[in-house]
What we know:
Helix content is 77%, strand content 0%. It has two domains: 1-52; 53-130, Tetratricopeptide repeat domain (Serine Threonine Protein Phosphatase 5, Tetratricopeptide repeat, Alpha Horseshoe), CATH 1.25.40. By secondary structure, it is mainly alpha-helical. α1 (2-10) packs antiparallel against α2 (14-26), α4 runs antiparallel to α5 (68-81) and α6 runs antiparallel to α7 (101-114). It is globular and about 40 Å long. It starts with a helix and ends with a helix. It is built from eight helices and no strands.
Amino acid sequence: MTGYLSALATADRPEFREGLGTALTAAGRPFEAATCLESALAEYTASAERGEVHYLHHLAGYWLARDPAVAVGWARRDVDVRRAGRTLSVLAECLFRSGRVVEARRTLREALTLGAGDPQLRARAARIGV
């Protein structure tokens, strides 16, 4: 947690707050974690509402852990902006966890053809069955 606190002291960014919230959750400190996570989500969402795209993948990841169906929508928006192996890989994971296995496999096959920019791409392919 000290790494996140140090990073936040230098640059207060929502992805650092989300990381701290995740670490606090793992440390059994849910109330402190909720403050960090809610703050990160609010900033991610406000950025997307302003038409900015740089936090779309964070929104997909945030919701993937909580509501994969919501994550699919954010991942699709990210793919619409940046159609690449990494973004398609995240979309495939969201689809898979939403129970949309056929669509996830099709999306992951496309991700594989565009390259392995996502270090988790091969692991996803193995887990999803591509």
